[in-house]
Amino acid sequence: MIGIEIFSGPGGMGLGAKQAGIDVKLAIEKNKYAAQTYLTNHKETTVVIDDIENIKEFHFERNEEQVILFGGPPCQGYSVSNSKTRSSDNPKNWLFKQFMRAAKLIDPDWIVIENVPGLKKMDKGYFLKKICDDLLSLGYTPNAKVLNAADFGVPQKRERIFIIASKAGIAFDFPLGEYQNNHVTVSDAIFDLPKLENGDMEPSLKYSSKPLSQYAKMIRGKERKASQNFVSKNSDMVIERYSHIKQGNNWKDIPLELLSNYKDPTRCHSGIYRRLDQNKSSIVIANYRKSMLIHPTQNRGLSLREAARLQSFPDDYKFMGPLMHQQQQVGDAVPPLLAKAIFDKIQTYK
Questions:
Q1: Sign of the Cα pseudo-torsion (39, 41, 42, 43, in order)
Q2: pTM for the complete prediction?
Q3: pLDDT in tens, 116-127
Q4: Which of 19, 108, 203, 267 shows the greatest Cβ crowding within 10 Å of its Cβ?
């Protein structure tokens, strides 16, 4: 099966496709740093650095294989945490139309669209219905479901909606996660990584121990050292705030006198200053630098490699560009293991 990815980002979804045995021929991404990350890790894929709206033709060798068109359009407009852009007036909320235009040009056998679960309820379900209606009008049979990445072996409680559409009239039956009753924990995922300090920028360090779980062993692969151990440097005041927060808790543990720069510290977002609980799966890894997610046992933010582990990227996956862009790439990506589960199931219909 041949894969064509649009809105590819740094390649999390593409990696999941490749892990499922799909030959991803072409990827399109307009962000130069994310595209560079994709190209660095997927050298056999042609990466086009451009806005999908400018692409008029898709050049790839098709042969007789089935083709799958997939990707995750920017989702900020559908997020329940972003009420300012959650309306039909935001042009970014119409980027799914690019899937319909690409489908007309490529005529794929399958289409996979990934997004935040807020898409399901936005404008009382209007956008989800519109996407499905457009797919039907093109001759596809769509099905949609919200999946939790933690149920598929990702050490993170991250819900995403997938819309799967078949040109052959197949009503796609979504896979059941094998980890529903046995989620991978934060300690399973990252406790073999090097111990770090606030502001460390270590490109390569020895692991602190042998793999402590099957997950860590799988993610490590053949790597002998952990790469990209990059931690944003926080002020002494922020580190002092971190020191008061217990595992699983947030800013509410911080003494009010240490939050004097906030206009109203009692109204902080619940996700701010959250220390991860080592015995549970992580909360959502979005822009973990801005939300200041805290390491379970060390008074610092997460390293880039730790965040990548919590997204299920293997340790040999390298992120490119300035650190803030690397961090954003990790947070925006589709967890590869979640994507792999979807593509594995599609492969069973061949």
A1: positive
A2: 0.93
A3: 888 887 777 888
A4: 108
